Backbone:
């Protein structure tokens, strides 16, 4: 198996606007691919299509060779694709550890009756899940440990919310993580930390990662490969150095006519 | 390392913010209840509930049965609204379906007398299926739209119960009577298990104690379980929950069905203990009372749902007897005043000013030649006797009471608009006017007063403390 | 044929009234995304105001002013009182909750509804009061397709149309209408563009509630009876109409109102009065399942 995630000739329109046009991307296992492009290029729409929030007008999404096009988002997540959100969508009123445990829904089994009666089976699972969650949160060093477990998510600082969102995505058991601007709104130190976290996600946990990012330092620091989008079309693909200097990419960011003068 | 601790510091400050802001009203309540573990309070409550019948009267048993039913309903609604965040305004209809279902299967209405052990499970299953169907129909609807559909469902149920006594069936000459219309269904069988008939309220009371305890324990278990957590996640952000492997529609429908089943079960008990069912028992006022209970206690909180339901279900009992109701009223007034006015000096000033204001109003009434009622004719308890020499009660109590009521509403509205400097000046007038309106008018019409209070409570609660007495502060980021 | 024409006129009249109520729901939902459960009670207060103005002007027996003047006074008073009530409700029950959770104003609205219902019960009692229209106005109505039609119904229908046209012009042509549409589209952006959002919201509540007040008088004139519980069911119908048409859409509310009115009056005449509400409920469910945003509502894209 050489392809973890494949986007095959996907097109998505909203009314008359073509948001994604005949786009194909392949991601190998344990690869880190960055998707860049100006605002409105269709990056987040791509994530929404992969995770099943939107249904593509044409084309297919394959996860480890299986067609997942048109499945419910929860099913796709259970099949191994989890994401974070550009604007951080935690379960703000749940505690930190509950956020992580909630995301383990798809790989646990206790039913309504077992839960309500507190059957031994359900309790064992609950204890195991709690241990898993703690272990997972320790991935972020001391940031999300100890007294923070029992605090509501809304009380976290902005950077910690982003970290918790990554932890929550990991908790689903997915191998493929889609990170939507994980460094947005962070200070340089925190940005550097996130870069390391992304590298460790692959190094220590073996995740395959697709990342949308505007911060070129992050892109440069983590990517095996960079895909540049503009108006829903792939305009460049390759290693960071090649894409960053590609005239189409420079043009799409800075506008026509400036590419030659630079 | 210095930077590390600084980062934690910011976090701690944010986390502690809740503690700082909630110190005022909630502080004492939360502290008293928080000191002992939950099972101590639970055991005390159960013990009281078990011992009560030994000293209680028939009337007390009746109150206890009503309270038990109300607690069951509140626990069920709390799962649907408080956990899964589904605004189900047709909830009471499931209660009604349970009651009517049992009445149809165990009465002379159709000559069917199924044994309790058969009838109750059948009815609960049927009501759950109703919940499933409605849940399926409404599964894709967002919050507001779900509210509309369920509101209609509730209304349709009442309408069906009311006009179900004359249904025209194609191909049959005479009309079919299913529900008995406004007369409902009477002579419903009592519960009986293993040959033992539940012959008095006391039996049902104990049955309800058992049911409520079991239900509360189950809800407690659910709270920290896979399903309960998923419900809470779905209630807060369905889209994120879906992306995190939770099948949102299935979970929503599950909550809906469980809520319906609990209401249906409560309905069967209601039918058996009342020995009859009538459409008016399942109308909007009960629904609003239930919502008020769940929200007063703090939606999503087990403790809150139980205490809120207990408070609101006992409220009508407190209002029934004038001599009780005036005591409850004055106590609440004093408590409210103590909370509103912070320093002892100001409290004394307000009390003195109120007393003086009352005498001035007496003088005014006399100067206007308004006919008064002698104190002996309207006092009904210790509090009113105490007030007898001070409060002027006009002969035309309806007119003056209504005028006072309108004035009071206007004054309260003005109070929220003016700055803190003017408030102390308005306060004595408001206190006097509320006492006046209560004794002249409101105490005489307990059922209207109750509804007015619940309506006002809902508005004020939403503004002052939307999370209720025991709920956690909820934030919506989006 | 005669029955059909009668029912058509009845349905249109009823539909006009529902449309006016539905417009209120839609306007308020448009700017605040709030289901104003208390709207039915505002309508009820309008009906009561009209009644008391009528009594104040001499009652149905012998009005002290010309009948047309009395009716004009009833409408104006009801619209002003209802409008002010709506503004008051917004100020005291909704505005403090504007930044609160989604569910809070809904609960508050339930509270307002309960409070108003019982306040009216306390002040005026549970006695049903009658407009008794035939005693002061019973002219021969116009002929429609050879059938004699009740003049009161024609008056109500014409008035409803005038109000709806007026509202449409208000929303499309005036600065207030522009402000309203801007607030409905994006409240935060509207603030930044210098629009006084509070003023717009207050005006929307006034207009919406005044329409409900007018609807209250219309129902009084046509069906005579008013009581403190009348708001709930009418509110529910208006609400259905708004949702069927597409909540937030003004033409949708009008269409929905007419549709529900016609369905009700024809079901009552040809099937059974008991089925009228059930059928409008079924229509609601059907529309919600097939077009969840209503007949004329626009489809929203989930933003992630």
Residues:
């Amino acid at each position: 198996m050489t392809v973890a995630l494949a986007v095959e000739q996907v097109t998505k329109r909203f009314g008359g606007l073509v948001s994604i046009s005949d786009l194909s991307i392949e991601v190998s296992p344990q690869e880190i691919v960055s998707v860049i492009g100006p605002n409105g290029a269709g990056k987040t729409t791509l994530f929404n299509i992969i995770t099943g929030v939107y249904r593509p007008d044409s084309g297919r999404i394959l996860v480890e060779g299986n067609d997942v096009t048109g499945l419910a988002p929860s099913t796709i997540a259970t099949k191994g694709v989890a994401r974070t959100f550009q604007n951080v969508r935690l379960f703000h009123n749940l505690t930190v550890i509950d956020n992580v445990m909630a995301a383990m829904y798809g790989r646990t089994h206790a039913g309504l009756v077992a839960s309500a009666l507190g059957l031994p089976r359900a309790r064992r699972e609950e204890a195991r899940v709690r241990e898993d969650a703690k272990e997972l949160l320790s991935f972020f060093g001391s940031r999300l440990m100890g007294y923070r477990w029992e605090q509501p998510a809304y009380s976290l600082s902005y950077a910690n919310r982003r970290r918790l969102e990554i932890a929550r995505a990991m908790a689903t058991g997915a191998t493929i993580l889609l990170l939507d601007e994980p460094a947005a709104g962070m200070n340089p130190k925190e940005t550097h930390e996130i870069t390391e976290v992304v590298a460790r996600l692959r190094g220590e946990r073996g995740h395959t990662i697709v990342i949308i990012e505007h911060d070129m330092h992050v892109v440069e620091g983590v990517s095996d490969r960079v895909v540049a989008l503009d108006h829903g079309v792939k305009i460049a693909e390759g290693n960071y150095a090649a894409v960053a200097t590609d005239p189409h990419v420079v043009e799409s960011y800075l506008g026509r006519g400036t590419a030659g003068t630079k | 390392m210095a930077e590390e601790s600084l980062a934690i510091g910011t976090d701690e400050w944010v986390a502690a913010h809740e503690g700082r802001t909630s110190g005022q009203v909630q502080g004492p309540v939360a502290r008293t209840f928080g000191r002992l573990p939950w099972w101590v309070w639970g055991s005390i409550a159960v013990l009281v509930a078990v011992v009560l019948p030994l000293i209680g009267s028939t009337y007390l048993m009746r109150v206890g049965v009503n309270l038990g039913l109300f607690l069951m309903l509140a626990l069920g609604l709390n799962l649907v609204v408080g956990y899964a965040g589904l605004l189900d305004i047709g909830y009471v209809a499931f209660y009604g379906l349970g009651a009517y279902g049992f009445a149809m299967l165990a009465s002379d209405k159709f000559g069917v007398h199924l044994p309790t052990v058969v009838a109750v499970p059948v009815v609960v299953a049927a009501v759950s299926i109703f919940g499933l169907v409605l849940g399926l129909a409404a599964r894709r609807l967002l919050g507001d739209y779900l509210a509309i559909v369920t509101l209609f469902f509730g209304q349709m149920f009442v309408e069906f119960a009311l006009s179900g006594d004359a249904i025209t069936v194609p191909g049959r000459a005479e009309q079919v009577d299913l529900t008995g219309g406004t007369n409902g269904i009477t002579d419903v069988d009592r519960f009986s298990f293993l040959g033992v008939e539940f012959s008095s309220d006391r039996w049902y009371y104990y049955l309800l104690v058992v049911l409520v305890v079991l239900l509360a324990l189950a809800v407690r278990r659910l709270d920290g379980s896979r399903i309960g957590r998923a419900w809470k996640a779905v209630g807060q952000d369905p889209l994120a929950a879906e992306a995190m492997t939770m099948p949102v529609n299935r979970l929503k429908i599950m909550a809906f069905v469980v809520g319906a089943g609990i209401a249906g079960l409560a309905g069967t008990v209601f039918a058996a203990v009342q020995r009859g069912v009538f459409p008016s028992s399942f109308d909007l006022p009960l629904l609003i009372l239930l919502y008020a209970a769940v929200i007063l206690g703090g939606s999503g909180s087990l403790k809150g749902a139980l205490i809120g339901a207990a408070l609101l279900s006992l409220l009508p009992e407190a209002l029934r007897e004038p001599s009780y109701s005036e005591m409850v009223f004055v106590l609440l007034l004093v408590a409210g005043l103590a909370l509103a006015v912070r320093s002892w000096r100001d409290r004394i000033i307000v009390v003195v000013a109120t007393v003086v204001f009352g005498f001035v109003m007496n003088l005014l009434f006399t100067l206007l030649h308004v006919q008064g009622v002698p104190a002996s004719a309207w006092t009904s308890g210790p509090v009113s006797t105490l007030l007898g020499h001070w409060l002027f009660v006009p002969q035309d109590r309806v007119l003056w009471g209504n005028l006072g009521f309108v004035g009071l509403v206007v004054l309260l509205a003005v109070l929220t608009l003016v700055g803190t400097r003017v408030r102390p000046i308005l306060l004595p007038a408001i206190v006097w006017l509320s006492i006046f309106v209560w004794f002249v008018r409101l105490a005489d019409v307990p059922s209207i007063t109750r509804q007015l209070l619940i309506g006002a409570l809902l508005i004020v609660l939403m503004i002052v403390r939307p999370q209720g007495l025991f709920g956690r502060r909820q934030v919506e980021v989006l | 044929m005669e029955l059909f024409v009668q029912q058509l006129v009845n349905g249109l009249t009823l539909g006009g009234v529902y449309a006016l109520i539905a417009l209120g729901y839609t306007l308020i939902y448009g700017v605040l995304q709030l289901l104003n459960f208390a709207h039915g009670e505002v309508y009820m207060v309008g009906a009561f105001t009209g009644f008391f103005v009528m009594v104040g002007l001499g009652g149905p027996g012998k009005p002290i002013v010309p009948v047309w003047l009395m009716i004009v006074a009833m409408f104006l008073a009801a619209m002003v009182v209802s409008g002010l009530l709506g503004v008051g409700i917004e100020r005291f029950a909704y505005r403090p909750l504007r930044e609160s959770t989604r569910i809070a104003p809904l609960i508050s609205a339930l509270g307002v509804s309960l409070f108003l219902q019982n306040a009216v019960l306390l002040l005026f009692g549970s006695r049903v009061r009658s407009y008794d229209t035939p005693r002061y106005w019973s002219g021969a109505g116009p002929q429609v397709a050879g059938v004699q039609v009740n003049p009161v119904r024609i008056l109500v229908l014409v008035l409803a149309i005038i109000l709806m046209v007026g509202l449409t012009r208000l929303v499309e042509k005036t600065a207030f209408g522009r402000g309203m549409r801007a607030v409905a589209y994006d409240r935060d952006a509207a603030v930044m563009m210098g629009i006084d959002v509070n003023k717009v919201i207050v005006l929307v509540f006034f207009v919406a509630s005044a329409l409900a007040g007018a609807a209250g008088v219309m129902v009084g004139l046509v069906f005579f009876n008013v009581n403190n519980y009348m708001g709930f069911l009418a509110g529910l119908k208006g609400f259905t109409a708004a949702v069927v048409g597409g909540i937030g859409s003004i033409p949708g509310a009008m269409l929905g109102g007419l549709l529900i009115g016609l369905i009700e009056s024809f079901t009552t005449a040809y099937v059974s009065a008991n089925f009228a509400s059930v059928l409008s409920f079924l229509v609601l469910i059907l529309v919600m399942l097939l077009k969840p945003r209503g007949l004329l509502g626009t489809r929203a894209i989930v933003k992630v």
